[in-house]
Amino acid sequence: MSLSKAAAIVGAAEAIEIGYLEEPITSLQLHIEAIKAVSDQTGIPISDIEGVFSTGWSSELSEHLGIHPKYIDTTSVGGCSFEMHVHHALLAVYAGVIDVALVSHGQNGWSARRIGGGGHRGGDPTAPATQMSMSYGFSGAPSNYSHAMVSHNHKFGTTPEDFAHVAVVTREWATLNPRAVMHSRETHEFGGPITLDDVNNSRIISWPLTLLHCCLVTDHGGAVLIAKPEIAKSLKTNPVWIAGAAENMSHSNMLEMDDFTATSAYASGQAAYEMAGLGADDMELALLYDSFTLTAAITAEMLGLAPRGEGYKLWKDGHAAPGGRLPINTNGGGLSFNHSGMYGMHLLIEAYRQLSGTAEDEVNGIKGKQTNARTCVVNGTGGSLSTTGTLVLVAD
Amino acid sequence: MPYNKPVPKPSPLTQPFWDGAKEGKLMLPKCVACERVHWYPRHICPFCHSMNIEWIEGSGEGRIYNYAIQNRAFGGWAEEAPFVTAYIDLDEGDRMVTVLRGVDATDPTSIKIGSKVKVEFEQASDDIYIPFFRVVEDSS
To answer: Is any Cβ of chain A less than 8 angstroms from the Cβ of B44?
Structure first.
């Protein structure tokens, strides 16, 4: 048996309620709701879970569930951690250590403002990189990612307006997904379609990034189950095969990022394609971490979906849009669907829905938009364009 | 007015840097084995993995690799927003992050990548002096 397709994602589900929750919710509850939902969806009892993968929570989750997993992984390197969890789960199943793995996510990015929590690790103030960067007024992800936009503009002659197309097209997808926060005026006062002018004229956050270049900060929980082929083929759900999986990193602190326009998604993408025996041209769908418009556009370049410097054209020319040749971020993305702080699980769930042919069905009771894609490249980006995990997934 | 922005707490690894800063010197770690300067301070050279690292006094000069504007910020920095954060390629090699002095944050495109900068220090506490960089010559 080869490593490629040695395991499949056999189900993917979300917490009961996601988005801007009226009643504050904890990260733990978001985890548990999603785990229960994916167990019900697949028919795999929670007691059959042998490996638990989460961003630091695996022992607490297992204890809460009353299970005793024999493989425990707490990789927590930002929003791409979940793609890495899938990579690690594939390896563990391939090695015969476990037959069923749970990857779980719960993060009350929105509720944390009222009740605390959030799932972010605190930095170590004594770390040398922290000492040498903490004095300069950076205030979270936008204040770092704005630097990458400036570099891309400088190096390739692009403009923030070019990247605004990413926000507009991604919003178009959100209008097709009733579970997206920005689906419509009914779901959010600023929901529904947006224009380039809306993006360009929205509030400045960290020049050149305006508000609509930035992702949402919501509550979200999600879980996927991964199983060996014999189990995957026996379930009521359709398997989605893990054909390629890889991870990489270029830095942790942006101080160590050589080129602000290039990420390790090039390396993780190449390795994932190679494992899958497929290339960028074979991909019929792409789910690209869009913490910011530029994150998705640069990732498209790194994964070979567009030439260097021209990632934004996939959106500008309509290829990434509904009906386009390469649909991207069909759930509405971190920009307009949901983004709890670590978006990697949201990518996995949408990839599963599309490739299992259930995006039009009642996954979580909500209809979606079916792309009929058979192949999908998924790329998570963590930290400050620091860490990446790439998956090549194929339909059964 | 007392300094009201985040003040780093030195560790044994970084103490020589802060000792130098107090005297107006930009001290940089340099690998004795491969003779390359690296930033930030490390226990091991990130280029050749020698643990034989010395401190040298840098020129305090470099060029802007990249910048962006912080239009909002927290704590003491909120009062200064908008301000300009920048990454500086040092003449000795490798890169520091800073807030730029001598630039107009309300006119972002007036700031030029490649412009020459020089370090200056601001007193933040009795012992901590924080390096900032001032544009001394525009790139054009």
So the answer is: no
Give the list of residues 6+ apart from residue A53 with CB closer than 8 angstroms, or none: A73, A75, A85, A86, A88, A89, A101, A102, A103, A104
Residue among B5, B39, B67 whose CB faces A135 most closely: B5
The 8 Å CB, 24+ separation contacts for A307-316 are: A308/A156, A309/A152, A309/A155, A309/A156, A309/A157, A309/A158, A309/A261, A310/A156, A312/A158, A312/A162, A312/A163, A312/A165, A312/A166, A315/A165, A315/A166, A315/A168, A315/A169, A315/A170, A316/A162, A316/A165
Domain membership flag for residue A74: yes
Local confidence pLDDT in tens for the 140 residues of chain B: 789 999 999 999 999 999 999 999 999 999 999 999 999 999 999 999 999 999 999 999 999 999 999 999 999 999 999 999 999 999 999 999 999 999 999 999 999 999 999 999 999 999 999 999 999 987 75
Distance CA A174, CA A179 (A): 8
A182 in a structural domain: no
Interchain contact, B11 vs A131, CB within 8 Å: yes
Whether A129 maps to a domain, the answer reads no
| Architecture of the domain delimited by B15-137 | Beta Barrel (2.40)
Q: Which of residues 79-138 of B touch A (CB under 8 A)?
A: 80-83, 85, 87, 95-99, 108, 113, 124, 130
A139 has a chain B CB within 8 A of its CB? yes
Does some domain include residue A315?
A: yes
Domain count, chain A: 1
Question: Can you give the pTM of this predicted structure?
Answer: 0.95
CATH of the domain at A342: 3.40.47.10
